[in-house]
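User: C-alpha cells for Origin recognition complex subunit 3, please.
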Amino acid sequence: MATSSVSKGCFVFKPNFKKRKISVPIEDYFNKGKDESEDSKLRFETYHLIWQQMKSETQRLQEELNKNLFDSLIEFLQKSHSGFQKNSKDWGSQIKLREIPTAALVLGVNVTDHDLTFRSLTEALQSHVTPYVVSLQSKDCPDVKHFLQKLVSQLMDCCVDVESKEEESAQKKTHCSMDSLSSWYTNVTQKTDPKMPRKKRTSSQWQSPPVVLILKDMESFTTKVLQDFIIISSQHLHEFPLILIFGIATSPIIIHRLLPHAVSSLLCIELFQSLSCKEHLTTVLDKLLLTTQFPFKLSEKVLQILTNIFLYHDFSIQNFIKGLQLSLLEHFYSQPLSVLCCSLPEAKRRIHSLSDNQCENIRRLPSFRRYVEKQASEKQVALLTDERFLKEEAQSLLENLYVYHTNYFLVLRCLHQFTSSLPKYPLGRQIRELYCTCLEKNIWDSEEYASALQLLRMLAKDELMTILEKCFKVFKSSSEKQLGSTAKKIEELLAQFQSLDEAKEEEDTSGSHSKGLQKTDLYHLQKSLLEMKELRRTSKKQTKFEVLREKVVNFIDSLVREYLLPPETQPLHEAVYFSAAHTLREHLNAAPRVALHTALNNPYYYLKNEALKSEEGCIPNVAPDICIAYKLHLECSRLINLVDWSEFIRGTPTTAWLPSSAMSAPGIRTSEPRAAEKRNVRT
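Assistant: Done. Predicted C-alpha cells:
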C-alpha cells in the first residue's frame, strides 16, 4: 500500500476481508478417520442419538436441581418489592434505614458452571419477577463510571416499549448517573397501564417492577467501586427500586471483608446456598451411568480420571459432562463393535446384518475368547466357524449383558443403603465410590468389605429395619423375576423382625405376672443372676434377634457375590464399555511439554505422512526444519555451534534429490539452487 506522506512514519492499514474458513463437519471427520472401519455413518448416528438423550437428561436434571434455589430467590425478591409495588410513596417509610434488598448467592468454587446458573436465573427472574435484570462482571467495572455505563446500557436494552428505543439510544450517549437512571425508570414505568388487573399483568407489565442487579463475581469487584455504588443507590432507593444479587464462590464472610459496617448496614442481606458440587456430581452419575436407560458405560480407570479431574482441579459439572461426551465420541470412533451400543431390540436387529469382518471382530474380543474357552469343544468349533450360530449366540450374550446391568445397579443401590451409614464409611460415603470399587475388582475380596460386614453385624434393630425398608423399595421397582423374589425375601425378613417385637411384649407381660406371684429375697436374686451370667459365658447362645441379623447380613453378602461381578467377566462388554483411559488422559489432562517433544521428535505421530516414517535415532531428510533442528539439539545440545549447523543444513538434499513420495512432506519447498541456504535461514 502507498501513502501520500513525505516523512517517515508508521501507518496502520486494515486487513482485507478474508473469507471465513468452513469448518469440517464432525461426521466427515468421523467417517474418514478410519478407512478400514465399517458402518461409520451408523456409528456416528448412534453416537449423536445417545448424546442428545444424555444432553436433554442433563438439562432436565439441572433445572430440577436449581428449581428449589430459584423458587426461594423469587419469593425473596417478590416479598422485598411488595411494599414498593403496593404504594411507592410509602417505600421510604417502610425501609427507614434505606436498606437495599440483597441476596447472597453462594454457588461454590466451580466458577465455570456459574455462567449457566446465572443465565437460567436471569430467564427465571424475567419471567416471574421483572423484565429489568442486569448482570455485571468485575472486569467490565474498574470504576464507578464504567459500572454505571454498563448498568445503563444493559438496563435500557431490557426496555419493553419499542417506541422509546430511539430515545433510550440517545440517553445511552449522555452522562450516566443515578439521577438519569431514576428519571428514565420513572418515564418507563409511567407508560405501563395502571388500570390493568394484577392477575392479568405479567412481569413486563408491572406498574413498578424492581431492577435486579446481579454481580456474578462479587469477590473480584474493587472495594471502592462497591462501596460508592451501594451508598449512591441507597440515596435513590425511593425512586429507583434496586435489588442486588451477589454471586459468591467462597464464603459469605467476604461481604463483610469487602464492605465496612457503614456500607453493609445499608444492605438487607439474606443467604442462599446452592447444591454442593459433590452432591451434584453424584446425581449426574446416578442419572447417566447408574441406569439402564443409556447403554454406554465407563470403565473404572476412565471414571476415576473424570472424577479426579473434577475433585482435584475445577469442581465443574460442565467439564465433567464434556469429558463424558469425549469418552462417548472416542468409544464410537475407535471401537468397530460400538455399533451394538444401543437399545437391546435395536442391537439384536443389527447383529443380523453384521458382515464377516465384524463377526471376526467379535471373535477377537478378549471377553469373547474367554467365553469360548469355557464352552464344549463342539460349541467352540461352531462359534469360530459358523457365522449364523455366532450371531444367535451374540444376541443371547447381549441380552445377558442387559440383565446383568439391571441386576447390578439394583444390588449396588441396596449395598449402598447398608454401607453409607456405617462409621468411618469403609466402602465410601457416596455411591460413586462404591461403584468404582465394584468396577475395579471383586469387592468381597477387599478388607473394606470385610470390615463393613463386621459393622453390619453390630447394627441395632431399628437401624436394620429402616435399611431393609429402603432396600425393599429399591427391589420392588424391578420387573426381573429373580430380584422380584428378592423383594419378597426382604419383606419376609421385615415380618420376622416385627414378630420379634410381639414375642418380646408377650414375654414381658408373662414375666411381670410371674414376678407378681413369687416373692424373692436379695440372696436368691443375686444367685439367679450369677447363674444366668455363667450360663451365657459357657453356652454363648445367640438371641433370636442376633440370629435374624446374621441371616440378613448373609443374605446381602450372597446378593453381592452373585450380582456385583466386575464388567470384565461379562462377554461382549467391550461393545458398551469405554476403557481407553490413556487416550482420555491425553486429551483432558495433557502435558504440553510431552506433546511438543512427541511432535518434534516424531512428526509422523501427528502429521500421518508416510514419508516421515523413520527408525528411532535417525533424522529423515524430509522432516520439517524445526524437527531437524530439535533432533540435532537433542544429540549434542552443549556442542552445537552455528558453523557446524550451517554446514550440515547446506549438505541436506533439496527436493530435486528426493523421491516423488516425499515431495508433499512438510519442510520441503522447491528445488531452487539456494534451497539449502534458505532452509538454513528458516531453521
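User: Anything notable?

Assistant: The chain has 30 helices and seven strands.
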